[in-house]
Amino acid sequence: MIEVKDLCFTYPTGVEALKGITLTIDDGEFLAIMGQNGAGKTTLVKHFNGLLKPTKGEVVVDGVTTGEVSVAQLARKVGFVFQNPDHQLFCETVEEEVAFALRNFGFEENAIKKRVDWALNLLDITQYRQTSPFMLSGGERKRVALASVLAWDPQVVILDEPTIGQDHQQKEKLRQFIVQLNAQKKTVIVVTHDVEFVAECNPRVVLMTEGKILAEGPAEEILTNQKLVAQASIVPPQITQIFLGLSDFGLPTNVIDVHEARRILLDILEGAS
Amino acid sequence: MAVIKTRDLTYTYPGATKASIKDVSITIEKGEFVVLTGPSGCGKTTLCRCFNGLIPLFYGGKLEGEVVVAGCKVVEHSIYELARHVGLVFQNPENQLFALSVEKDVAFGLENLAVSRDEMRKRVDWALQITGIEDLSERSPHELSGGQQQRVAIACVLAMQPDVMILDEPTSFLDPVGAQKIFEVINELNKELGITVILVEHRLDLASKYANHVIVMDEGKVVLDGEPRGVFNSEKARLIGVGVPKATRLYQILGENGIRLGRVPVTSEEAASLLREVLKRD
């Protein structure tokens, strides 16, 4: 469990990035943090693995106050995949990259090999095992970064903009994988602007603006609230936009999923004829 | 008039065992707004690198077939000559900006082309104005937000007044409202200045409404090439796993259930108005 209590953070430059955040994230939860550029989303999640320490307030991860331990101690429990894979990748081959953290954590060579195989296979990059990460496309580099964190099987996985550069099929795989992690009681926290991805996953959503939490709740509630969405510089999913445009027919306005949309439309059209 | 034309274009990176793009033959007309999409690693970025000569002039490797850009055969010209015709905006503006002020960054390309000082002043001001960042001209690009940086990157390329502007997922680091604003700037460049736009993009829900030509690649080949509605609604697009706009997907799902809408929608507005007609009928 992650407990954030009245968290404030000010960067050394004087920028006040977080202004009193209180939030509880349970084990096995899938949480999406959304909001405009500069709202403080990444600053917030960097507190979960201790990369940043609170200026005021506290963050408690599984009973441990992050201010009192090092990033290295928290990393085993909380894995962080950065927004830009180039900030994370540095080894000469994909295989070494994925094995790097495992070696640091002191895994046995045998276990390392198994875990690397597993992670490469999971993210569909086995064929690049001996390739330099820097020879790969942007979307592929992103998957190498993901594999290198998932390999050590952390209890909490933080993904900063995981869908950037990913095609539709990769996104669907990512969605299924997150569902699987949740089933194993692992916590997944995603920072994202990808409204359509969130609409497909329907996680709990936390909307942020200017260092504060603007609203939180199920995706279908938050993403269909036009006022909140506009305040957070996002746009409703396309299906929601369609239904908002048809509200005068008495259609519900809180629809985010295309299959739910089909069900509602079929009910009306078949019921009428 | 074709501004880009390729014939049987095949390219292999140095040291690679297989070609990254294979037998690509496409024509892009002047003034078109093209969306180039396809699974990650399918060769989109490689194809774009052929348009401004980075391939083969910078990357080396083996290029077969032909690519003609604004009347120039790419292999017969240098990168700086091609830069006058084709501008490239990177996915991540941080990889492109480096000067100490926005104005200097925007002027950099022109300095390299040895444009006169007066002309440079005029073009820099013009590019800053069109992209809506005049008030940022003295700021350091590195203290700007992602959306502002992307506008600077676009201004840098725009100042060179290219015939063709290639943008490689230019909004992926931006929030949806910021992304929409960038798409509107790009759309203006296309509609008002007549610049041919090639947009590499996965998020078709946001980008499709501006396009009049969609090219889909898969495993190095062009597999679909035509106007958006036809491409998005094709069986092939579904099989490759192209993330067609949800409006188009809803049209298809309703069709499978016997409800036919008047035509294939690409935007939510279109889908809503087509559904309106069906709902009224009942």
Name some characteristics of this structure.
heterodimer; A: 273 residues; alpha/beta; six-stranded mixed beta sheet; four-stranded antiparallel beta sheet; 11 helices; 10 strands; globular; B: 282 residues; Rossmann fold; 40% helix; 21% strand
What Rg of chain A do the Cα atoms give?
Answer: 20 Å
Q: If classified by CATH, what would the architecture of the largest domain in chain B be?
A: 3-Layer(aba) Sandwich
CATH class of the largest domain in chain B, named Alpha Beta
Identify the overall geometry of chain A.
globular
Q: Output the CATH homologous superfamily of the largest domain in chain B.
A: P-loop containing nucleotide triphosphate hydrolases
Number of domains of chain B: 3
Helical run tally of chain B:
12
Low-confidence segments of chain A, given as residue ranges, are none
Reconstruct the topology from this structure:
The complex is a heterodimer of chains A (about 270) and B (about 280).
Chain A: E1 2-10, E2 16-25, E3 30-35, H1 41-45, E4 56-61, E5 64-65, H2 71-75, E6 78-81, H3 94-104, H4 109-122, H5 138-150, E7 156-160, H6 168-183, E8 187-191, H7 195-201, E9 204-209, E10 212-218, H8 219-222, H9 226-231, H10 238-244, H11 258-272
Parallel strand pairs in A: 3-8, 3-9, 6-7, 7-8
Antiparallel strand pairs in A: 1-2, 1-4, 4-5, 9-10
Helix pairs in contact in A: 3-4, 3-5, 4-5
Chain B: E1 2-12, E2 21-24, E3 27-29, E4 33-37, H1 44-51, H2 54-58, E5 62-69, E6 72-73, H3 79-83, E7 86-89, H4 102-112, H5 117-130, H6 146-158, E8 164-168, H7 176-193, E9 196-200, H8 204-207, E10 213-218, E11 221-226, H9 228-232, H10 235-240, H11 246-256, H12 268-281
Parallel strand pairs in B: 4-9, 4-10, 7-8, 8-9
Antiparallel strand pairs in B: 1-2, 1-3, 1-5, 5-6, 10-11
